[in-house]
Amino acid sequence: MIDTIIVNGTVITATGQSQESIGIKDGLIDDLYEPGSEPDAAETIDAKGLAILPGVVDMHCHHRQGSETGGYEYKETIESATIQCAAGGVTTSVAMPNVTPPPNSLKLYEDLLKVYEKSAVVDYNVNPAGTVTSEIPGLSKTGLAAFKIFMVVDTGRDYPHMPGIGIHDHGKLMEAMEACAAVDVPLMVHPHDQALMAHIEQQFWDRGERDALAYAKAYSAHDGVIWDSAISTLLRIQKATGVHLHLLHIQTAGSVELLRQAKAEGQRVTAEINPWALFLGNDWSAIERLGSYALSYYVPEKNTPVLWEAFNDGTIDIMASDHAPHTREEKEVGWTDGWKAHTGTPSTQHYMSFLLDAAAQGKTTLERIVEATSTAPADIFGMQGKGHIEPGYHADLVLCDLEAESEIRDEDTLGLIGWSPYAGCSVKGIPVRTILRGKTVFADGKVTAKPGNGQYVTARHPAA
Ligand SMILES: [Zn+2]
Prior knowledge:
The chain has 464 residues and is an alpha/beta fold.
């Protein structure tokens, strides 16, 4: 006798599709069965007409909360972020360290995990900032997924890239990479060439160009030179240190070229793309219409086919949400000063739908979606129990209706800010039920799990 049997669905994994029933016992996948040969179960879930994917493992989410009262909880809290995760099919959400106080020491990291323990609705991990080298050995023993460093410094605003989380001095970067290599924990880097950006943005400002459209153009100027230059530097220091480098925010054709070459030479590098690079920031008309509300970053359209190819062939290993909520007030200012507007866009509730919609259009496959959003992130970062529909793994599943069409609306977003840059977009394919460790956390349009339901996912690295 097992706890739950899920029948009549199509199981999608990174390697194929099958008509099998999934048995669940004690929160784990017990086994997969040919239809008709299932054991007795206390609960039967009929997944007729639905696709069953492993729960999404989102390696890059901004939960905004750094303590009980860190200061950015008006944008989002651990609870509100993970509620959106549950509704979006995300069963593991990994937080970024640009919160107050930024977790860059063992003490701050452990304090923050206590807040997660009572607040998270789905499973989680937290990436501390790898900016204090002396703290890296202690932090490396916690089970963290990776360290994170931002190379970007805010000019004209004080968030989201505040002091304590950034390094753009190359010597200091090398020191951090050596420290991460010594404990064999991956290092995620937001690539950015601050010196080039300072020059480029000054040229825009000197011409009196300061609005969101100027901001968009400055960050993408000269075919994305600030991105490519930083990635080139990072890859060269990676070669010197041997660290597992994970590049964030891949968005230029030049970066894809550099990444391909580094991988061909056997360098220890993996990379991430974000939904905004394929579904939002690559549409100039959306940026004209929405201004800062559409920015994360502007990704000129000519990069789109290159990025899809790199996503599909695995050059870009994973997609993570880079869910980054800000209030309307913090975006509205962008109409006059794009540098003052907080950068980033919310997406964790909806990015699975955009991928399913892309599969319906033939731009990618369901298998590649599973690999890029769940299996590969879990394997790359050693997320124990996650990312596979196989016996012994956590029963984290997302049931999707691939035929359902829906329009994204501001009023349906479950975050605190009440808006989505994707409002008005129609998608084909939506998550309809999310199961975490065998228990349904989202169904019939409602998140049923409570804060405290989420557990820390331990990551295991080769030598940590
Ligand atoms: Zn981010």
